[in-house]
Each structure stands twice: as C-alpha cells, then as structure tokens.
Amino acid sequence: MSVSIAKGNTNVKIDTTVMQPTAVNSDKKVVFDTKDLNLWYGDTHALKDINLPIYEKEVTAIIGPSGCGKSTYLKTLNRMVELVPSVRTSGVITYNGREILSKSFKVEELRTRVGMVFQKPNPFPKSIYDNIAYGPKIHGIRNKKIIDEIVEKSLRGAYIWDEVKDRLKENAYGLSGGQQQRLCIARTLAIEPDVILMDEPTSALDPKSTHKIEDLIQELKQDYSIVIVTHNMQQAARISDRTAFFLNGEVVEYDHTDTIFTNPSDMRTEDYISGRFG
Amino acid sequence: MKYVDVTQVQKRMNGRILKNNSFKVLFLLATIFGLIVLGVLIAQVLTDGLSWINWDFISGKLSTDANRAGIMGAILGTFWVMVVVAPVTLIIGIGSAIYLELYAKKGRVQSFIQTNIANLAGVPSIVYGILGLTIFVRALDFGNIVLAGGLTLSLLVLPIVIVAAQEAIRSVPQHLSEASYGMGATKWQTIKNIILPAALPGILTGAILALSRAIGETAPLTVIGIPALLIPFPGGIFDKFTALPMQIYYWTLDSSLVEEYANLAAATIVVLLLLLFILNSTAIIIRNKFQQRY
Ligand SMILES: Nc1ncnc2c1ncn2[C@@H]1O[C@H](COP(=O)(O)OP(=O)(O)O)[C@@H](O)[C@H]1O
Ligand SMILES: [Mg+2]
C-alpha cells in the first residue's frame, strides 16, 4: 500500500507497509528533505532507506536506542560523517531544494548554514570572546567592531551574556559544564546558521543546566530550525514539535510529537516510549 | 558458601604483603643504582674540572698551552650549529608530522613511512655522519663548515622531532577539530587555528630535547672532519667551526700527552652539561606551563 503526502511544494510516495514515516501533513516549508538515504561505515549498514522531511522553525527530535543511527543521521545533514574515511552514502538529501551530498555543494558552505552542537561541551581552549569570534573570523570578517557585535548578540542569543559579559577575556574552561554548552550554542549562533543540529546536548549536564538549555531551545526555534537527538524521552516530549523514532538504522515512525507519545501507530514505538526496551 | 573464604585470605595475607614490599625495595634499589652512577660521574667531572672554570677559560681562544686555553670558539660553534638545527628540524619536523597525521591516507604507504621513521631514530649516529660527509661536505661541496655540521645533526634528530610532533598532534582531542569543522572551517584553518596551537607545547618540548641531543653528539662531527685546531671564532653558518663535544673529545685523546688536558676536558663537560641542563629544564617548564587540560 502506498500513499501520497503533500508537504509544501513536494510530493513524496511513502510505503506504509514497511513502516516508513507515517502521515506528516504540514504546510510548513521543508528545510531538509531526505530521500532513500543509506549509509555504510565499511560493511556496517548504519542507515537504511531513510525518508524524512524536516520542517522550518520547528524542533524535530530524533529518539531511539543506542547505536540505532541517530548521531549518524544528524552528522549526515552537515556531512560531518565524511570525516570517517570508510563512509559511503546513497540517496538524496536536499537543503532548501539543493542537493547536499554532491561534491559541488562545498561542505564549508553547508556547515555555515547548518550549525552543530555536540554531546560533550567542546569549547576551544581559548577565551570566551575568541570562542565566539572564531566562526566569524574563519568566514573572513576582520572588522573588530562587527566581531564585537556578533559576540554580544550571540551570547545574548544563548542567554549567557549576563553570566560572562565581565569575563569575556577569560578562558572558556573556567565555565561550568552547562555554561560551556550554552557557550557552544552561542558559538554556533555566531555563524548565523538556518539550522542547528544538536546531538544529545544535555546528556552531560545536570538537571538545572538541562532545563536552561531546553528553555533556550524553545526560544531559538522562533528563528532557527532545530534537529535534536535525545536519549531522554521526556525531553523529546517537552520540547519537540515532531519526533522520529529510529531503530536499527531505520525510521520506524515519524509524526507530530503528541501523536508519537499518545497514539503511536507502531508497536515498537509504543514499546520504546513506554520504556520496554532501549 | 562464599568463594572468598576469610580464613584462606588471612592465611595468604603475609605472603602477599611480603611480596608487595620486596618489589618496592627492588625498584627502589634500581633507582638508587642509577642515581649513584650518575652522582659518581658528576662528582668526578666536577673535581677534575671545576677549578679550571673561570672567565678566561670561557671566553678564551683555543691554545696548546693548557693554562691559556679557552673554549669560546667551541661555544660559538655549538651556538651556530643550533642556529641551523633548530629551524631546519622544526620546519621539516612539523611539516612531516602534519602531513602524516592529518593528510596522509591511513594505509600501507603511510604505515611503511611510519615504521621507517621509527627505525631511523634508532640508526647509530655515526651513520648520519657518513651521510653528512657524502652529501653536504663532498657532493654539495660545503666543506666542514657549520652549515654542513648543522644539517648532518638535523638529519640525526629529525626522526625524534617528527615522532614527538606527531604525538603532540595526535593528543589534540578530536572534539576540538570537530567543533572547528562543524562551523565550516577548512582543514587548513582548523590545523592553523586549533590543532597547532594546542599541539605546540608538545612539539616544542620534543624539539628542545632533540636539540639537546644534537649539541651533545660527537661521532657524526668527527666523521665529517670537524677539527679542534686553532681556527678563528666562527661568525656565521658558513664558517669553519669546532663544537663543545669535539673539544672534549680531542682534549681527552691528547690527555696522555699533556696531563692538564684531562682537566680542560672535564671543565668543558661541566659547561656542556650546564647547557644541556638549561635546555632540558626549559622543555620541562614549557610542558608544565602549558599542561593541557581539555
Ligand atoms: N566512526 C564509525 N565507524 C564505524 N562504525 C560506526 C562509526 N560511528 C558509528 N558507527 C556505527 O553505526 C551505528 C550507528 O551509530 P550512531 O549513529 O552513533 O548511533 P546512535 O547515535 O543512535 O547511538 C552503530 O552500529 C555504530 O557502531
Ligand atoms: Mg549518538
């Protein structure tokens, strides 16, 4: 059985018999569209026939047990997977209609449009200021006044300005883990991306810092499209608009978060969110 | 029933503790042995040489008269050799390390090169002397000037610098370069701004230790024919020269002719040791000061 789903200006055929993403209707614009994506690490088939539209200015959560390919999928969206030499891909990912997996799309450009926040806070061993200024500088901005402005704007955007404004010249390693992670978010904002990818951004943080980052994500989605991998089901339920459930490299179910958590259509999704495995 | 039986454990306890303590004593003795040998060596050198060290000895010209001989020529020679060795090994060493760690595809060729660099580090230094004699002194016709000696010693310590720099680069955590790539930086921007600054203390430490190895070497310099004659002070890298270890070598050789030469050799050893001590301490200070904390 096969149904046709209208999303924005594209039509995608989705075969529901193999439990592909279920009906996700929306008039929202699609930022990232993934079609028949397969990915191998050498012989390991890590992503299998992924079809997944990601919508603009929403929070899309990716959940699933360890090793199911969440990080791999996220890193495919900004082609960070290419840092692993054995990676091969097939299929198509379009970003605002442009095919990103082809060599003609320069990764440097893609990663300027699509920022990333990592699992473990990873500030550079530099000052707070230099951490934020790094992005604008590598993209060729030399004017000190403009960089100053970007630094302040980004730190404000990540709600950490008040905590660090008097110590911008201090080493970022003096910050707490939660502050470091917000600094990393600010550093990503400084390259003014459209999309922010976050790979379990709160898994190394205490509950209070986690709460701050969740609030921040809610604010950021006014201006950015966010894709977040999370291990924490409550977190997905709290902050995301849509949720994709991954299992063994496949998308088992993809729907509005409410639907996924209250009325999942696949048994495995239900088992997972009710904590029966994973 | 419990597998860990308390009475059994008690029975074996004394034996275990005895073994524990004996090994502690054994390792302590090994350390003490090393320290004693070192102490005797230094004491010997100091008693023979210390009273001979004075400003005239440091700043004086070479002379066959033991009471008038000085080592300024050798000090300057060693200095100019360092002026050649330091930049050559740093530039080539860091360059090779960057290529091998960050650009070369991991595979057969890369591991072949890697193995050979490790092997080169173990080649006897006299072999490098022969290489230097063949290439720099004869084929390129430099003669036995500072440049030839410096390049020969550079070849000798290059493997050490490359390996140290590779280790320093490898120890820069992946998550830092990922952060940089993740913001759209190119590979070169990431290397220049993130990887090299983080690796620099390790690279410098390795380079200084290699430098101190180079200035203590004698064999390769004898092979390329560095004299300890009454030559003028070297004023640059194109001059003929002698170096501290050469000076020590010739004075020791001739101490059967003139007894005081043995004291002069000892005094020169003190100076060389002091120099090495300063270099090695600098390396340690750099390492501690920039102790990485990510
Ligand atoms: N660099 C890599 N090399 C080889 N296999 C990898 C690599 N990274 C991940 N994998 C494999 O790909 C699969 C998916 O991993 P990952 O995307 O990290 O899962 P998740 O983030 O959902 O825990 C796993 O089986 C993992 O072992
Ligand atoms: Mg992961």
From TrEMBL, chain A:
Protein name: Phosphate ABC transporter ATP-binding protein
Top-rank taxon: Bacteria
CDD domains in the cross-refs: ABC_PstB_phosphate_transporter
GO molecular-function term, one example from the UniProt record: ATP hydrolysis activity
Membrane topology summary: Peripheral membrane protein
Summary of the function given for this chain in its UniProt record: Part of the ABC transporter complex PstSACB involved in phosphate import. Responsible for energy coupling to the transport system.
Keywords recorded for this protein, A-Z: ATP-binding, Cell membrane, Membrane, Nucleotide-binding, Phosphate transport, Translocase, Transport
InterPro entries with a match to the protein in the record: AAA+_ATPase, ABC_transporter-like_ATP-bd, ABC_transporter-like_CS, P-loop_NTPase, PstB-like
UniProt subcellular location: Cell inner membrane
Domain ABC transporter as annotated: residue spans: 32-273
Main localization category: membrane
GO BP terms, alphabetized: phosphate ion transmembrane transport
Signal peptide region: none
GO cellular component, as recorded: plasma membrane
Species, as recorded: Ornithinibacillus caprae
Automatic annotation (TrEMBL), chain B:
Keyword Cell membrane: yes
Name of protein: Phosphate transport system permease protein PstA
Location(s), subcellular: Cell membrane
Gene3D superfamilies: MetI-like
Signal peptide annotation: none
Main location: membrane
One cellular component term from this protein's GO annotations in UniProt: plasma membrane
Membrane topology: Multi-pass membrane protein
Entry's transmembrane regions: 21-46, 71-100, 120-139, 145-165, 194-215, 261-286
Organism: Ornithinibacillus caprae
The UniProt record lists the keyword Transmembrane helix: yes
